């Protein structure tokens, strides 16, 4: 049986990785830890014929600290974040979020950049190829209908990154290297809120640095809902941060194709921001926990987080 030729490229620098990506005529994927990319390839959800390995790029494995900010290279492993004393002291919620991902073995391979780019999930999509062939292909895998809702145009696969809500709640910025140079933008701005194409990054671009400003959001509460306390992807992730002026930023994951972001005041009636969060969350019954239950847990998580922040 003849099969299409597959290509593996080991990049030795950021510029080389971007150059090789720009030369590809066929679909490709960047891979570092591979804990998301290679699982999707195994399931047949990713059929790209070229992998550009960026795991050897030491320039992206550094954590740099200045008086005003912390810059985290996108290839820093999730289990390495907790070893940094400044992150431990000033951003403990980020470490909590990282430690909630998968298992110790996965966290030893997975990178923070890979986690914020983790592919959206849906119980009707994240199955083997033969399973999807028997049930029918959905909008996210070149089908013509959302199996979960029957929609012909909208995909509601969910954002399942755990570090992204924590980072967004603290106004994280990202540096993106591409063929046209370097750009810096808010992390939250890369998410489209659309399930089929959940991010608006150029395929040839790399997120190289995640940056957090120090002493802006001084308290953050992180929570995650899942059936098991290890391995399982999130059914609801919440991160609530407050600054010295009492302004809060609530970010939810697992209940919409993109991050749900709500702003408010810590001393306001909690129902105001809860209603805002419920209105923005487009959770559907496309995972193990029901939409109704997850919406109830949104209320509980936000209520508990606000109470905890007031006591900190």
Secondary structure layout:
Layout: E1 7-10, H1 14-23, E2 28-31, H2 37-43, E3 50-53, E4 63-65, E5 69-73, H3 85-90, H4 92-99, H5 104-107, H6 112-116, H7 129-135, H8 163-169, E6 173-178, E7 181-186, E8 206-213, E9 217-225, E10 236-243, E11 247-253, E12 260-265, H9 270-280, H10 291-311
Helix pairs in contact: 9-10
Describe this structure in words.
The chain is of the alpha+beta class and 312 residues long. It folds into two domains: 1-54, 2-Layer Sandwich (Uridine Diphospho-n-acetylenolpyruvylglucosamine Reductase, domain 2), CATH 3.30.43; 63-117 and 157-311, 2-Layer Sandwich (Uridine Diphospho-n-acetylenolpyruvylglucosamine Reductase, domain 3), CATH 3.30.465.10. It has ten helices and twelve strands. A five-stranded antiparallel beta sheet has the order 4-5-8-6-7. β4 (63-65) and β5 form a beta hairpin. α9 runs antiparallel to α10. The radius of gyration is 19 Å and the shape is globular. The mean pLDDT is 94.
Strand content: 15-25%
Structural class: alpha+beta
Please list the strands of the largest sheet in the order they lie side by side. 4-5-8-6-7
CATH topology of the largest domain: Uridine Diphospho-n-acetylenolpyruvylglucosamine Reductase, domain 3
Q: Please report the distance between the alpha carbons of the first and last residues.
A: 64 Å
**Overall strand count:** 12
